[in-house]
């Protein structure tokens, strides 16, 4: 899945084998992650219905303690819904993920999910929310704003913050 170009057919073969083994020795979180990766493979193959089924199946395996995994599942669900043309439902899934991520502590994994969320919000034309997601991703990765506070105040007063 992470090759350039991705090989979703080969990934599905590997994920199918992994799912069989995880059924025997894996946790519900690991099984959910396998569902999500399988859904992403189906999405790359153009099967949004299968991707949505896998997203929902993975989400059903998780409890509220697996917040980051729930957010990843909601991103996949949003992607599948978006491809199917259910833009409002997709946006709701993305916003759910954003709201949950907003309550989490900082870390590299949550930074990656914030980045993914920003990409999806931007693709849906929600530029303001995407910029906020990218800002959170940078912040959670430990990269802070570099402009001096006085400079930020000057640019905001000149209308640059709305540009």
**Helix and strand sequence:** HHHHHHHH
* Tally of distinct domains: 1
CATH class membership: Mainly Alpha
**CATH architecture grouping:** Alpha Horseshoe
Low-confidence stretches: none
Number of strands: 0
Helix content: over 70%
Q: Averaging pLDDT over every residue, what do you get?
A: 87
Biggest β-sheet: count, sense, barrel?
A: none
Q: Calculate the terminal CA-CA distance, rounded to whole Å.
A: 36 Å
Percentage of β-strand residues: under 5%
CATH superfamily: Tetratricopeptide repeat domain
Query: What is the radius of gyration?
Result: 18 Å
What's this model, at a glance?
The protein has 163 residues and is mostly helical. The protein has helices spanning 8-25, 28-44, 48-61, 67-83, 87-102, 108-123, 127-140, 149-157. The chain starts with 7 loop residues before the first helix and ends in a 6-residue tail after the last helix.
Describe this structure in words.
With 163 residues, this protein is mainly α. It has helices at 8-25, 28-44, 48-61, 67-83, 87-102, 108-123, 127-140, 149-157. The chain starts with 7 loop residues before the first helix and ends in a 6-residue tail after the last helix. The model has no long low-confidence stretch (mean pLDDT 87).
List keywords for this structure.
163 residues, mainly alpha, Serine Threonine Protein Phosphatase 5, Tetratricopeptide repeat, globular
């Amino acid at each position: 899945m992470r090759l350039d170009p991705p090989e979703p057919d080969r990934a599905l073969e590997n994920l199918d084998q992994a799912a069989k083994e995880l059924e025997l020795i894996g946790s519900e979180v690991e099984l959910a992650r396998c569902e999500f990766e399988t859904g992403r493979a189906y999405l790359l193959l153009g099967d949004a219905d299968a991707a949505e089924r896998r997203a929902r199946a993975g989400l059903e395996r998780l409890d509220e303690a697996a917040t980051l995994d729930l957010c990843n599942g909601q991103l996949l669900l949003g992607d599948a819904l978006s491809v199917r043309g259910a833009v409002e439902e997709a946006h709701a899934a993305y916003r759910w993920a954003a709201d949950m991520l907003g309550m989490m502590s900082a870390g590299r994994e949550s930074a990656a999910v914030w980045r993914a969320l920003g990409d999806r919000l931007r693709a849906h034309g929600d530029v303001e929310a995407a910029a906020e997601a990218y800002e959170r991703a940078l912040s959670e990765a430990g990269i802070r704003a570099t402009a001096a506070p006085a400079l930020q105040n000057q640019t905001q007063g000149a209308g640059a913050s709305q540009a």
